[in-house]
Design brief:
Helices cover about 65% and strands about 0% of the residues. It has 18 helices and no strands. The N and C termini lie far apart (about 85 Å).
């Protein structure tokens, strides 16, 4: 029994020593990699020098170990995410010279969908456009999460052609919508060739995205197509149209919005009044005047006062005398601190 416990203690001590040694080796290697990659980028070396330096550096670290490649890849991704401008010009060259594209492809060829997603994430984060042909097949995958990841990966990788978004099969969350628009503003890709098809898609998310894209590209020739969507049964699509009227300053939509007002709920009514601030005329002044006389939601009424004040700052000098509620709102609109 004593011998057994003695052997067990020795094994525990040995395993602990190996673990600490392994951990120390990883930490030391990571430090070397961090220093090397940072100095490589900041040295602004030419391509030939970079290739030679990487070849030599591979001999100084346990490069063939998976954990070592993982550290290098994670550090390259970190640098890509946190550095901007010319300093990142050689990121893709470094990625290739370390053979990490092949490493990423192993993730994509894995049977598990979440491992495939990691591979897509690597390509997406590095904006490695050569990898888009390896991501496209997953647009038709049976796993919906992987399909979603593939679509959003391709937005970064195929920014010169976003036509494929018309086929997006599921709803797009607000968070992902914002991501797409961020990419659109940063990369400024050419207008999709099939954008008119987006706004007649059976997928409401694609329709809303199509409207946002039309606003971004200032598609003034397509304003009627956008306004026709006010007949949609989807309240969120109608909301997007109302916002687009404001953003594109569609002057001809004034009467359309006035006629639509009673068909909408509170949020869209407020948005209509905001758009009328931009495109409204005397016709809107009369509409808002009549609106204020009636008993309506307080938030809608406050926006109505704001709209009328924007269109005609002197309107309230002679109107609504004796109406204490509107008088208070007017004072607040003219001076928010009251």
């Amino acid at each position: 029994m004593t011998l057994f416990f003695l052997i067990l203690i020795i094994l525990l001590i040995t395993n602990r020593w190996r673990y600490e040694s392994y951990k120390s080796r990883i930490k030391s290697t990571k430090t070397k990699i961090d220093v090397f990659l940072t100095s490589l980028l900041f040295s602004f070396s030419d391509e030939e020098t970079i290739i030679a330096d990487i070849k030599q550096f591979k001999k100084e670290i346990p490069f063939e170990k998976k954990w070592c490649k993982k550290i290098i890849l994670n550090e390259i991704i970190y640098l890509k995410q946190n550095l901007k401008g010319e300093i990142t010009d050689n990121i893709h060259l470094i990625y290739e010279q370390f053979g990490l594209f092949d490493y990423t492809l192993k993730f994509l060829s894995n049977k598990k969908w979440y491992v495939k997603s990691l591979g897509i994430y690597q390509l997406q984060t590095l904006e490695y456009t050569k990898g888009q042909s390896y991501v496209r097949p997953y647009l038709k995958h049976k796993n919906k999460i992987l399909v979603s990841n593939a679509y959003f990966g391709l937005i970064s990788l195929a920014s010169d052609n976003l036509d494929f978004l018309n086929d997006y099969p599921d709803s797009i969350s607000l968070k992902n919508e914002i991501k797409i628009m961020d990419i659109l503003h940063s990369k400024k890709p050419p207008i999709p060739n099939n954008l008119n098809e987006w706004i007649v898609s059976k997928n409401p998310s694609v329709v809303k995205l199509g409207i946002k894209f039309m606003v971004f590209y200032n598609c003034f020739n397509e304003t009627q197509l956008i306004l026709d969507l006010l007949q949609s049964d989807d309240e969120t699509i109608r909301h997007e149209v109302i916002v687009a009227v404001n953003d594109l300053i569609i002057i001809g939509a004034e009467q359309v919005l006035i006629d639509q007002f009673d068909n909408e709920q509170k949020a869209n009514r407020i948005e209509i009044l905001k758009s009328l601030c931009t495109i409204g005329t005397i016709k809107t002044e009369k509409f808002v005047h009549d609106l204020l006389i009636n008993s309506i939601d307080q938030d809608v009424k406050l926006q109505a006062v704001y709209t009328l004040n924007q269109l005609n700052p002197v309107y309230f000098e002679n109107a609504f005398e004796g109406n204490s509620e509107i008088t208070k709102m007017v004072k607040h609109v003219k001076d928010p601190y009251i």
